[in-house]
Amino acid sequence: TTSKPTPTKSPTPSPSPPPSPGTLSESPATIRIPDLGDSATFTLTANGGPVSFTITGPTGLSIAPASGDMTSSETVTVTVTAVGNGPPAFVNDLTLDPGGLTVQVDYPPRG
User: Fold this and answer.
1) Residue 75 vs residues 24, 42, 66: alpha-carbon distances, Å
2) Which of 6, 32, 73, 87 sits a CA distance of 20 to 30 A from 61?
3) Alpha carbon distances (Å) from 48 to 19, 45, 51, 72, 106
C-alpha cells in the first residue's frame, strides 16, 4: 500500500504586533522655582513610539499638563507652578511615568 502524503497546513499569518510603546526623555532634569506663584517649565519628548504619560509631584506644585498622550517624536512643554503654601523647601522630585524618570524642582526656603 502506498501512504498518502499528509497535507501540510499553511501557517496562519500572525496579527501584526501593536507599535512598541515609546520612551520619555525630559529636558532639563532640574528646574528652579524661586518663589510662591512663580513657574518653571521643562520639555517632555516621546522617543521611538507613542507614549501616554503621567507626572506626579508633592502638594504645593501645580503641574500642567499632568498627563497626556504623545505621538512618536512629539514634544510637550510642562509648566510647574508653586501654589497654595508651596512645596516643601529645597528639593522636590516630580515622577514621570512610564520610565520612572524624575525632574528635580529646586524651591529655596523663604526668609
Assistant:
1) 10, 10, 14
2) 73
3) 9, 10, 9, 6, 30
Across-strand partners of 43? 27, 77
User: pTM (2 decimals)?
Assistant: 0.81
Within 8 A by CB and 6+ apart from 88, the residues are 58, 60, 107
What SS3 class is residue 17?
coil
What cell does 55 get? 507626572
- Comparing C-alpha atoms, which of 88, 92, 95, 87 is closest to residue 24? 95
C-alpha cell at 32: 528652579
Closest-CA residue to 51 (of 36, 39, 65): 65
